[in-house]
Amino acid sequence: MHAAAAARGPAALHVATVDHGLRPEAREEAGAVARQAEALGIPHAILTWDPDGSHPGTGIQAAARAARYRLLAAHAAEIGAKRLLTAHTRDDQAETVLMRLCAGSGPAGLAGMRVERNLGGGLTLARPFLALSKAALVAWCDARGIAYLRDPSNSDGRFARARLRRVLPLLAEEGLTAERLARLADRAARDDAALGQAAEDALDRLASPGEGAWSLDGRALAALPEAVALRVLDRALERAGAPAGRLERLERLGATLLPALQQGRALRRTFRGFLIAADPQGTIRLTPAPPRAAIRGDDLLGNG
Questions:
Q1: Mean pLDDT, rounded, of the chain
Q2: How far apart are CA 178 and CA 105, in angstroms?
């Protein structure tokens, strides 16, 4: 990136390292990056994660990842950067796909990390090495005498990603290589994009936003392929203001709602803070759930 940015001037590239405060060596490692950046004439910043003085006791890697992107996005905004580049490789992609496969993810999850993703605020996250193996990246550094560090948490058996990393060589012996897992991600991303576009087109036809409520043509919704119908419902809820939710819960809702629509039965459910009411004529209305129902989350309100 230093070579690519040289023609655009010294301000074209900045480097930032996040010190999560999880290991005593991390500060010195960040300092080593700072010294390499200084030798190349690249501005560098060390960003420190300080979650009110204490780190969470569980889900530490997920919390650290969220904090890392939050700090990097804030730094990008501060310096006026429009693109945030990370060095994720094909091996990282394979591990991500395998983790999501274990979690029972659908196509969106199995698509893994995207080459580019909009983070909002005019910032794009890009992963230029996503098709490159980690071995190739390490060999490139070795050939040029570029020092690098190995994060010991990558082999810490307390973390699921580290445990799966040990399994990958065994899976590769059976043919499930990092290349094939990455290819699965590409195919899942392709199919998810097609299903997503079909859902957007259908939502534009079936939805009618109103004052404090959304209406959907339920009979037309139930006639769609289930994969598309569930996405239409999910996007309608998002547009109405509902928070994102898990695929399993959406599938459970669809398993009761879609048959009711096909049979002309009334149905009422609370889901993601919204009341979903289908009448016998097939109209679905999405309205914010009453406070008591919203507290009950996705509990059933009963068949109308």
A1: 89
A2: 18
